[in-house]
Write a structure and sequence with these properties.
The chain is α/β, with parallel strands linked by helices and 605 residues long. It is built from 20 helices and 21 strands. The model has no long low-confidence stretch (mean pLDDT 93).
Length: 605
């Protein structure tokens, strides 16, 4: 009899569900993709239903359900924090308690009631779940595991040792001293949204100079040689208030926080550069200490901070470890997968077989749609389309990309984690400098400074980027290869966002202002169709690189279904939509667009 284990993460941000069958990942998805609420933290009822559907079982057939953290321990930390800071946290306390008393402390009852489940219900620790999500799918039989995030129950950073089918937690750093919260404080102060805007801060950093680095080290953080540190909590408000920083923090950095959506100034760019530099130094010190203490040559990373691909790239190039593997869903969503793995190996004591290149299956773990399902939808809304065989589809799409069209690419199973990896992607020609602005302003509706990621044929990556390590999950930044760079004599006279105007390389649309790129290496094994498209594009242009950005607009989750993909296609300046074996041009959809304008909108489910 097969053993089915469901992992759940919920109630903070990025709720998710993941299902294992005899240790094999059957399905995993974030609730936001079903509810259409960005970073949805609600109980992942729809994601769970999808997992059950993928396995063709009902919850009653599950051998265990595992929650990714221990709510009572977390509640204890929150209560202790309020008591320690009283009476300052009264307003925050009054806002938080109804949710805890009414829902979060009753998770066992909630799960049993919602799923009509009466079997074993287990709870992992937050950082233990993160560590499991990174080690167990990795290609390593043993490795050190470093987890860094905002906070779990008490831990904010932790080190574990993974060997065979066991994770052993070695030591941790405790709240309120948190690298994730430090980075989120600067995210808030520079006018971006906490728990979703951190990657914007990372993207803004190369436009600035790290002029505040020493001030941060002198005033905000007491950093030790081993990477441990203490924050000066006098400057922060997150222990008891509703904001991340306070007036002292504002005085330290020359004025109040930037209001969201107002123009960015050099101050914000310099703050971003400074906190990024401090974060990289902390991570490198932690990693150096982990290597010294464990003696391990391989390192796994998880937790929200592991999504900092710039730091990941520097860690990889440091040579501290021979190899590195990062959980693609490194944030709280991945905790659901880690929780399920913990039950499989620790509770059921299952044997572990190491899988190469890993057991994550390219992170293509979400719903898929057949050509029959796609065509049924297209017919239902009166869409005009052409059906192609695979070779013709690839050739025509490559031609459309070559001639400057922006293509929505909807294929196979949806990705698990925050990155689109070639199944729910918007694609474009990286050689065209103007594409970066078109994508940001007319399709993604987002800030002009945001860089785009390149997808590159794995075998060609070392010729186009300074990298000799696979990056299948778009979690490592590398510089564009010197042979592909271009010099601009006017570069020195430009400041801040003016530097966007410079053509820096043969692939300017994916070259950031510091010549870096957050790349995805694509091989035939993990995504054969996307690989064929890149091969065809290279054959026509000599360039094995395409822009790959997520199929969504600002403020919305990545599209899940054909209906969501088609609606996004119609609402933006996207030129082409390719779903399954069907090709649609925007110019063919005028009648459907007129219906949408008359509010005859089709159902999105």
């Amino acid at each position: 009899m097969a053993t089915y284990i469901l992992g759940i993460s919920a109630f903070y941000h990025d709720s998710a569900a993941a299902l294992l069958k005899d240790g094999d990942i059957i399905a995993a998805a974030q609730e936001e993709r079903f509810s259409r609420k960005k970073h949805d933290r609600a109980f992942p009822e729809k994601a769970i239903a999808y997992c059950m559907q993928e396995a063709h079982i009902r919850p009653q057939k599950l051998d265990a359900i595992v929650f990714y953290e221990k709510p009572f321990v977390k509640f204890n930390r929150i209560l202790e924090t309020y008591l320690h800071t009283a009476p300052l946290g009264l307003r925050s306390f009054l806002m938080a308690m109804p949710l805890w008393i009414g829902q979060k402390l009753w998770i066992p009852d909630l799960i049993k009631k919602r799923l009509a489940y009466s079997g074993p219900l287990l709870f992992g620790e937050h950082h233990e779940s993160h560590a499991a999500s990174a080690f167990f799918p990795s290609p390593f039989s043993e490795a050190a595991v470093l987890t860094m995030d905002g906070v779990g129950e008490w831990a904010t950073s932790s080190v574990a040792l993974g060997k065979g089918n066991q994770i052993q937690m070695l030591y941790e750093q405790s709240f309120p001293h948190s690298l994730g919260l430090l980075y989120s404080a600067f995210t808030y102060f520079t006018g971006f949204k906490v728990n979703s805007g951190e990657y914007k801060l990372m993207g803004l950093a190369p436009y600035g100079e790290p002029v505040y680095t020493q001030l941060i080290l002198d005033e905000l953080i007491d950093l030790k040689a081993d990477g441990s540190f203490k924050l000066n909590t006098r400057y922060f408000n997150y222990l008891h208030g509703l904001t991340m920083t306070n007036r002292r923090f504002a005085r330290l950095f020359g004025g109040p926080p930037r209001k969201p959506e107002t123009p960015l100034t050099q101050r914000e760019m310099d703050l971003a550069a400074s906190v990024q530099k401090v974060s990289e130094e902390i991570i490198l010190r932690m990693a150096r200490y982990v290597r010294h203490q464990t003696g391990q040559k391989q390192l796994c990373l998880a937790g929200g901070v592991a999504l900092n691909c710039v730091a990941n790239g520097k860690l990889l190039r440091s040579g501290l470890f021979d190899d590195l593997w990062i959980q693609p869903a490194a944030g709280d969503a991945g905790g659901a997968l880690g929780a399920a793995y913990l039950a499989h190996f620790h509770y059921f004591k299952s044997k572990r077989t190491v899988t190469r290149p890993d057991a994550q299956k390219g992170s293509y773990l979400g719903p898929s749609y057949s050509d029959e399902q796609i065509e049924t939808f297209l017919r239902s809304v009166g869409a005009r389309y052409q059906q192609k065989d695979e070779n013709m589809l690839i050739e025509q799409t490559a031609d459309l990309l070559r001639t400057g069209n922006v293509v929505g690419w909807f294929q196979g199973r949806m990705e698990f984690g925050p990155r689109a990896l070639g199944n729910r992607s918007i694609l474009a020609d990286a050689r065209k400098a103007e594409i970066q602005q078109i994508l940001n302003l007319k399709i993604k509706f987002r800030e002009s400074f945001r860089p785009f990621a390149p997808a590159v044929l794995a075998e060609d990556a070392p010729q186009w980027f300074d990298i000799h390590h696979p990056s299948p999950y778009m979690l490592i930044t590398a510089d564009v290869h010197p042979s592909k760079r271009l010099s601009d004599p006017n570069e020195q006279s430009l400041n801040g966002l003016q530097r966007l105007k410079t053509r820096r390389s043969l692939i300017p649309a994916v070259t950031h202002v510091d010549y870096s790129a957050r790349l995805q290496t694509v091989n035939q094994h993990e995504n054969p169709l996307f690989y064929k498209l890149l091969r065809a594009f290279k054959a026509k242009t000599g360039c094995p690189v395409l822009i790959n950005t997520s199929f969504n607009v600002r403020g919305e989750p990545i599209v899940r279904s054909p209906a969501e993909a088609y609606a996004c296609f119609l609402r933006t300046k996207m030129d082409v939509l390719v779903m399954g074996h069907f090709l649609l041009l925007k110019e063919w959809q005028h009648e459907v667009q007129r219906q949408m304008q008359r509010q005859e909108v089709f159902e999105l489910d």
